Amino acid sequence: MSSDIKLEFGQYSIAGRKSRNDDSYGIVIPDGHMLSAKGIAIAIADGMSSSEAAKEASECCVRSFLEDYYATHESWTVKRSVATVLKAVNAWLYAQGQRLDFEGRGMVSTFSGIIFKSGMAHIFHAGDSRIWRLRASTLEQLTTDHRLKLGRGLEHLSRAFGTNQNLEIDYRQEVLEKGDVYFLSTDGVHDTISSAEIAGLIKVGLAEPEATARKIVEAAYEKGSTDNLTCQIIHIREPGQRDALGQSAAALQLPFPKLMTAGDILDGFRIIRPIHESSRSQVYLATDTETQETIAIKTPSPNFSDDAAYIEGFAHEEWVGRLVRSPNTLKIHEIKGRRYFLYHVTEHFEGKTLQQWMLDNPRPELETVRSIVEQIAIGLRAMHRKDILHLDLKPSNVMINGQGLVKIIDFGSSRAASWADDRQSNATAAPAGTADYTAPENILGKPPSNRSDIFSLGAIAYEMMTGALPYGKGFSSAAMIKKSKYVSATWLRNEIPLWMDAALEKAVHIDPERRTDALSALTADLRKPNSALVPTHVRPLIEKNPLLLWKLISLGLFILVLVLTFNLRR
User: Fold this and answer.
1) Which architecture does CATH list for 246-347?
2) CATH homologous superfamily of domain 361-417+431-536?
3) Quick one: pLDDT at residue 420?
4) Strands (E), 158-197
5) Cα first-last separation, the chain
6) Distance CA 233, CA 255 (A)
7) DSSP string of 95-114?
8) What is the reported pTM?
9) What is the pLDDT at residue 1?
10) Is pLDDT at 75 greater than 70 in this prediction?
11) Going edge to edge, which strands form the sheet with 398-400?
12) Rg of the chain (C-alpha set)
């Protein structure tokens, strides 16, 4: 699938039986990078005809939407960008209307706009212009008319641009599918001809959207419309590759598959056998019935079918697994056909979790530990280069096969700058990850960084070498973090050299500013001594090996007792 949306469109507008046309409309399809970064914008507006400034109002809405949206920061979400633009437009129209109202020139307009981006339609609306979608021969109205019935057939706009200083703008997002048709119209069209007639004309003339838009307007005119008439038709040829937010929105619309057994078919994949089952997910070995490729399928646990946060995380994991490419991260495949259930299709990687490996290898060679750490670092580096933090690195989220190949297998708690919604940008949100391996800044509600993942990797390296955690256990509170003290790895395993212990201590430092700042630095420091880390003074025995010190003290006391006892008996 192409990363960018592809579409065909047509639009047409006439004044009809009125002396002037107060409707405005337009579409912007940017070139190159901006198409991926900001998407395609389309808008329609209907100025309130009782005002002399109606045309100016509708033009202001459409022009500002189509131009100013592309000037907003690329890191902003579509919703934030458009809300900023439309809020400014409404404030200006309201201020102008207040000044000109005594002249009968209040500036009021309906507005309906769409941003097509990353496989999603972001819809913004106020007033009684409309946005529709034709999918599988069904025409559905996606916006609500903001009309207030006054009786005796009279109606009044209850919401429109320029009528209220704090205008509420409707927003919704829809997942794009190949073949969708979006239809925008002003009331001169949809108040005159039925939705069935509109759908029929679109289906017949889909190959020529410009001519079809004209036919729909002319049909409404011939039926006696007394208003301005405007419509737009957008035929989605390719919906584009979804980003993280789009992936999440799509997932929320899919049902969970049932628990499966050997022989079951899921959207063209035949289940061979279950591989793993936990309270959060199931993994099955399967084959693609079309290509005969052996793959794995991960399905969400039925326990979370009504948990939106869980579903978002499950969808986000798929997006990350498709975005990041590394020999040391599990590959998640794009599903080519239409998907009817929520699941992931991944490569089949035969192995055991690093957690199980550590149980089977309680005292591994230091070189083996280095090799595993370096492979995990390669996978993390691939994520960091995509501006994605893992934030839940732990032995159960890493697998190793019989040949020693290591892969990071779970991305459900990762965070990406491109998923800049309120939930993720809130620094005080609940920390991701497992307490035993989570960096202290995450527990404290501070923004995570690449050093947060370095802490987790350092903790895993320490545990592989010693069988314990660098602070005895994970952190659960600010008070615990404050009183925690690093336990030297040399106390637990004598053959660990001091310079390697120093590298581990820096990698898991409580203060991220004093922690190892790059994955490459960590792997290098575990390979050879770093002169900046190796202690230059002779460390007292109480620091190097307190257990040995107390054994020696105990031995000395025992000898002293023997001597005293012997002397007393003489």
Assistant:
1) 2-Layer Sandwich (3.30)
2) Transferase(Phosphotransferase) domain 1 (1.10.510.10)
3) 43
4) 170-175, 181-185
5) 96
6) 31
7) HHHHHHGGGT----B-EEEE
8) 0.65
9) 37
10) no
11) 352-353, 398-400, 406-408
12) 32
